[in-house]
Structure to design on (330 residues):
């Protein structure tokens, strides 16, 4: 099979962390176009208004938005602002599925779906798209139903199903793509547990459909450290709190810091195993998937950061912190 190159920005859901090294910016046309459209509409409207009204509008715009603090912030909203780019992930899955199969992907299932943020974007891409999200945490699912699913149009909401259930035992309608993102499957800490999960979910993937896992690794992912990044008017902190080289067990956390000096510590915490790419490929094959392969993220030569382009490869780079996708066909 020839190499495949697709644009992608990092994604997750509020019970999951950011990818370890970098979060490639989503394409401007995807992320910023709605804001540009809004500004254009406001500009056109202003031209039609009398000068007095135009002045009033400027005065209203002059009001400052209240700054976020730990007390006034919602951790799920902060997570989505900091980490997720579901519109980019949805585009990636659709393009890669068509590239591999020659057909459109219509049904997406995301395990460990958190707030269903990805599902809420998937159904907006096409009138025939359906999304299934599975997660054990009822309050997180409820938050997503209110804040991500609720604002959708009726015909979009009716094509989403969020299920409170254990991904190891749930059965759902067949899907074209089943994704377990942001290393959430690392909750399984033995080969037997992860193989059993892969085998079980294969029953709900249509023949020829895809299982997609993301993976992380490199020496930097095993260093106990904190990395801080500014997002709007707050700071996202990825805390690699503990790592055991004997078991590859990691204790990772997310904190949010605010410019008034307040902080939400341990907003999210993850205890899991770091799986290597050979292990994931071997387990996919053992679970009966065809053509297990890796999509490797390239590097921008100017910034030496991830370029958001993933190619099928047989060899990786000795990068101190890398990101990849592991894909198998059911």
């Amino acid at each position: 099979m020839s190499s495949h190159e697709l644009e992608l920005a990092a994604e997750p859901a509020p019970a999951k962390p950011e990818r370890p090294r970098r979060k490639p910016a989503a394409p401007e046309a995807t992320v910023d176009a709605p804001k540009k459209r809004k500004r254009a509409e406001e500009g056109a409207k202003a031209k039609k208004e009398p000068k007095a009204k135009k002045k009033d509008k400027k005065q209203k715009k002059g009001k400052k938005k209240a700054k976020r603090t730990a007390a006034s912030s919602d951790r799920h909203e902060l997570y989505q602002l900091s980490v997720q780019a579901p519109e980019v992930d949805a585009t990636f899955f659709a393009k890669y599925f068509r590239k591999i199969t020659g057909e459109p992907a219509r049904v997406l299932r995301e395990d460990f779906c958190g707030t269903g943020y990805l599902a809420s974007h998937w159904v907006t891409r096409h009138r025939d798209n359906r999304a299934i999200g599975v997660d054990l945490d009822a309050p997180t699912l409820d938050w997503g139903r209110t804040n991500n699913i609720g604002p959708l149009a009726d015909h979009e909401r009716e094509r989403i199903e969020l299920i409170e259930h254990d991904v190891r035992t749930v059965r759902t309608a067949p899907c074209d793509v089943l994704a377990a993102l942001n290393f959430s499957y690392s909750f399984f800490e033995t080969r037997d547990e992860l193989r059993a999960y892969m085998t079980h979910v294969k029953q709900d993937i249509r023949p020829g459909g895809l299982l997609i896992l993301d993976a992380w690794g490199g020496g930097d992912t095993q260093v106990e450290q904190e990395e801080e990044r500014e997002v709007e008017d707050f700071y996202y902190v990825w805390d690699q709190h503990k790592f055991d080289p004997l078991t590859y067990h990691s204790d990772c956390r997310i904190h949010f810091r605010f410019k008034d000096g307040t902080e939400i510590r341990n907003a999210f915490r993850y205890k899991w195993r770091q799986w290597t790419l050979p292990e994931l490929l071997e387990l996919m094959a053992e679970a009966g998937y065809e053509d297990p392969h890796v999509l490797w993220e390239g590097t921008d030569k100017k910034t030496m950061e991830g370029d958001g382009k993933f190619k099928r490869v047989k060899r990786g780079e000795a990068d101190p912190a890398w990101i990849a996708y592991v894909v198998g066909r059911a």
Notes: The chain has a mean pLDDT of 84. The chain has ten helices and 13 strands. The first strand starts at residue 5 and ends at 7.
